[in-house]
Specification:
The complex is a heterotrimer.
Chain A lengths: L7 E3 H15 L3 E5 L15 H5 L4 E3 L4 H13 L3 E8 H4 L3 H8 L2 H4 L9 E6 L14 H4 L6 E3 L4 H13 L4 E6 L6 E3 L13 E4 L4 E5 L2 H15 L4 E5 L2 E3 L3 H11 L2 E8 L4 H13 L8 E5 L8 H6 L4 H9 L7
Parallel strand pairs in A: 2-3, 2-4, 4-5, 5-7, 6-7, 10-11, 10-13, 13-14
Antiparallel strand pairs in A: 1-8, 6-12, 9-11
Helix pairs in contact in A: 1-8, 3-5, 9-13, 10-11
Chain B lengths: L2 H15 L14 H5 L3 H15 L5 H4 L5 H13 L1
Helix pairs in contact in B: 1-3, 1-5
Chain C lengths: L1 E4 L9 E7 L6 E2 L4 E7 L2 E6 L4 E6 L6 E3 L3 E7 H15 L17 H8 L8 H10 L17 H15 L1 H7 L11 H15 L2 E9 L1 H12 L9 H15 L5 E4 L2 E4 L5 E3 L1 E2 L5 E2 L2 E2 L7 H17 L2 E2 L8 E4 L19 E5 L3 E7 L2 E15 L5 H15 L6
Parallel strand pairs in C: 5-16, 12-17, 17-18
Antiparallel strand pairs in C: 1-8, 2-4, 2-7, 3-6, 4-5, 6-8, 9-20, 10-11, 12-15, 13-14, 18-20, 19-20
Helix pairs in contact in C: 3-4, 8-9, 8-10
Classes of the chains: A alpha/beta, B mainly alpha, C alpha+beta.
Chain lengths: 332, 82, 403
Amino acid sequence: MNKVAKLTMTYREAIREAIRDAMQKDERVFLMGEDVGRYGGCFNVSEGMLEEFGEERIIDTPLSESGFTGCGIGAALGGMRPIVEIMTVNFSLLAADQIINTAAILLYMSGGQFNVPVVIRMATGGGKQLAAQHSRSLEGWYAHIPGLKILTPATIEDARSMLWHALEDPDPVLIFENSTLYNYKGTLPENGAAFDIRTAKVRREGRDVSILTYGIGLHKSLEASEKLAEEGIEAEVVDLRVLRPLDNETIFSSVVKTGRAVIVDEGWKSGGISAEISTRVTEELFYELDCPVERICGEEVPAPYAKHLEQASLPNAQSIVKTVKKMGGIYG
Amino acid sequence: MNQPDIESTIKKHLHRVAPEADLKQLQPDDELGPTLDIDSMDIYTLMVAISEELHVDIPEEEYGKLISLQKIQEFLQQALIQ
Amino acid sequence: MGKFVMPSLGSEMIDAKLVQWFIQPGDKVNKGDIIGEIDTEKGLIDIEIFEEGIVTELIAKEGETIPVGSIMAIINGADEKTKVEVIETKQQEPNGEKELPKKNGKLKHPHKEDNKESTVKVKASPLARRVAEDLGVDLTKVGGSGPAGTIHRKDVEAFAELKKADETFEKELEMADHLSAADKKSMRHSIAAAMSRSNQEIPHYYLEIDIDMKRALDWLQETNNKRPVNERLMPAMLLIKTVANALAEVPELNGFWTDEAMHIEEGIHIGFAISLRQGGLVIPAILNADRKSLDEIRSEFVDMVTRAREGHLRSREVSSATITLTSLGERGAQKVYGVIYPPQVALIGFGKIMERPHAVEGMIGIRPVLSTVLAGDHRATDGHTGSRFLEKINEQLQHPEAL
């Protein structure tokens, strides 16, 4: 049972396996959140876990994000390793005070006495016709806050392996799972999951342009890079994986190599993580840039409900291809 | 443009490409290359200069035939009428 | 600070007479500028400068005969010039109406703006600028491929590569120092010395091939039909390009025999013999002909022939050929068995293109035939290499559209 039975699985299954694995390895680990028990999780992630681990470790909470997130922080201070599931990032706003005003700064406010080893998971992103209140990508917003670590798994391997490392971290870690990825299928590498919580990862090597992205943007970027390759443009796709702290080293070495940077992010441009990355690249690598940094981001509107409008408001492979092709000096 | 004018234009450019050649001795039907010891590059330079000055296009098929003063004159006269 | 010295245009050259300067102290010079004219065994040659800066002193006097390697002029380098400008600017600042606090990033000194006007504004990416600085490329000379002519890295690199290739001639100059110095300075003597030396030292071998020129000439005519007379191609241009391409495939023939060994050259510089009506001949070279298009070769060829006749060849053009091509055949000779120009190791002689019976696909037809003779240095290569080379030339001339 301890061994992973199948190597091909969905993103949802990968996270479930990660939670099960962690709970088996460490009895201090427990899962709490809305509908995680009897209902099996709003996105079906924790299905069957109540039966396996019992009510003590799979805890259904009242609909009060502020309350149960606070409980999770308290439990972490008390020596436990809680996994708090917030249904989506949209509802995390109700717990923002706990996350930002408590979890993120308690170590500092206590003069280094109290670490808060809580892991808070939540779904993020649009594209499922859930309308403006349920389709935000606010991970970049949380990346603004010192004291938090922000993880954005985009692959089966990361979904499977990130959680344990997050739990091992002595400080609060937020994991953002893009909701359109839950059904995405992939194969786990044989050697399992040796994932370092601090680094970005080059998913595709290329010499002409660096596409810097994370989460669902990775899949769109990889699709775009295949199309670009047909036209002789070799894009390097960097999966950021960690939005805070950003892995400058991996980002910079890729951009130094290609001389061009494009950031793909479903979040909004203004004050977003794309702005931060663009600025770092420009500050540090100005004389390495062969053309201006480009950004392909969500349109600055509340997410539309109508399918065609919602799709039009999000980056896609086509818009990435189009943007890259017009970058200065890209051909030849 | 009358015949003497055309002739003097040709000679002017001939003088430019082959300054040491004695053009007074040149007979109308003398072949330019061997007579003046000028090569295909000189002929080319000559043709370019003439065509530019007189605004006459020299078609490729005519080019090879223009080997003497007289042939060039005849061609230019014809071309200028048209 | 740079010293401009009398260049060596071949090992037979000991000195040359400075005919005239085209510059004066205080003038700004750029790389590639022609700064004077000298009288050599190769005729009047324009001398070029390969650094940029300000002329501070002219040491050589017009009419004077100057040994190779002697200082002719002093040029203040670009770096020092910049420093001078900066100092001047700083001195002007206190005279301004009000001294702006340094913290304010936007300094609005009218003087500064004025000074900047002297430099041309170039639109180039930051990376292109950095690369240009590293490679010593003047951005004002680079054509940009980006939107609104913006210069990108690849533009700078392509420019630098071509420039670098053009400048390898300096190395080749040193290589050429193997001929015994001729004691007399006329062009005739210079040729005599080189040719005697060649005949004594070089074991020549000769290979010849008859090339059916029908396709090449048809293609030439078809192409020329569409062009105005000043853009037409001549067989000689086609042959230069063909030889260059063939050398790219058979590089063993491209280079110099020096120090008892063959030195294959990277740059393919095709020297072509131009006979001068006043006697003698000059062999200017089209540099990097394999990398140039047929049209680039055409315009350089026309330009060089014209200048050769007028005595305005540049120093590098007469000293950098890695192989020589002669098409004396135009005068009527059917075949040319040439004498190699040392330290080169091959010479290609093209004869007159003549209508001759020629077997084509089992039939005798009357075809325009070009007799091509390769003279090879047997120390450097064997007949097998030469034969391969001639075959490459033949192949290319059967597909002129690909040139």
